[in-house]
Amino acid sequence: MTIQTGAVLPPLSLPLIGGGTFTLNAPPPQSFTLLVFYRGLHCRRCPAHLASFQAALTEFAALGVTVIAVSSDDAARAAQSAKDWGIDRLPIAYDFPLAAAPDWGLYVSSGAKPGDPARFTEPAFFAIDRAGKLDSAAINTGPRLRVSAGEALAHVRSRLKGGE
Fold first, then answer.
1. For residue range 21-60, what is the model confidence (pLDDT) as tens digits?
2. Is 138 exposed, middle or buried (0-12, 13-18, 19+ CB in 10 A)?
3. Domain spans of the chain?
4. Which residues of 91-128 are buried (b: 16+ CB within 10 A; e: fewer)?
5. What is the pLDDT at residue 118?
6. Rounded distance, CA 21 to CA 46, Å?
7. Which CATH homologous superfamily contains domain 32-160?
8. DSSP 5-53
9. What is the pTM of this model?
10. How do residues 87-113 score in pLDDT, each as one tens digit?
């Protein structure tokens, strides 16, 4: 399925490491919600990518932005990722259902090495407005070419000023 800018995104409610639940737009963010989908514990590129978003959390918060990392890993693998990668402030949602990946336009890959999950989502980035509508997305077919925290900050700043 292809999702279009301005479309209301599918419902999303996922458990968070450390307890609680992330539910998209409940409550609505002050400005945007950024969903940063990552491959999972087996990913070599994910630690630095998530660490960059964690390092920018203060800047995102000052702009009224909620940032959530999302993976299809189970609770144990997601918690291990957070521990091993030093992600202790960026909220991590887990158990994203692979059956919902087509609704989000996400690519699903199969593990190739021992220790890889059988199937997992590829990286993606979604900027979602207060109404739960898609502002912008970058959906990857593989582990490379991710939206950086700096690019995400620049995008949000531009949008808050009325830019494209």
1. 999 988 889 999 999 999 898 888 888 999 999 999 999 9
2. middle
3. 32-160
4. bbbbebeeeebeebebbeeeeeeeebbeebbbbbbbbb
5. 81
6. 22
7. Glutaredoxin (3.40.30.10)
8. TTPBPPP-EEEBTTS-EEETTSSPPSSEEEEEE---TT-SSHHHHHHHH
9. 0.94
10. 999 999 999 999 999 999 988 988 888
